[in-house]
Amino acid sequence: MKLQKSLYTCAKGVISVTSSSAVGEHRRGGGSGRIRNADLAAVLHCAVREAMQRLNAVSAAVYLLDEDHAELRVAMIGGSPPSFFTLPGRMGLDAPYTSTRALTSGKPAVLVDPDPADPDQQHVPPYPYVALSVPVTDADRRFGALTVLRLETRGTYRAAERTDLQEIGNELATALAGLAESGAAIAAGPTPMLVPVGSDADTSICTPGWGVSGVPGSAGTSLMYPLRRLGDLLNQATTRDDIVGAARYCVMSPFRAQALVLASAGEGRLWVLGHSGASSGMVRTLHGTGLDARTPAAEAIRGRPLFISDSRSTAADLGWSDGESHAEAYLPLIGDTQITDLPFAGSRRVVGVCCMSFRESRGFPPEERAVLSMMAGLLGAAVERVELSMKQHAVAEYLQRQFLPPTLCELPRMTTTARYRPATVTSKVGGDWYDVIKLPGERMVLVVGDVEGHAMESAAVMGQVRTAVAAYAAEGHRPAAVIERTDRLLAELGTDLLVTCCVVALDTADGMVEVALAGHPEPLVQRPDGSIATLEAPANVPLGITVRDAYRGREHTLEPGSVLMLYSNGLIDWNVADPGDGAQALLSSGSRERGADLEQLADHLITDVSCPQQRRDDAVLLLARYEGAIGEGAPRTGDLQIQQRDLQGVKAARSFVDDRLGAWGLGQMSDALQLIASEIVTNALIHAGSDVDIRLRAFADLVRLEVRDSDSNPPVPSPLALREEENTEAEHGRGLLIVEALAGSWNSSPNGRGKTVSVEVPIPEV
Question: Structure pTM?
Answer without folding.
Answer: 0.60
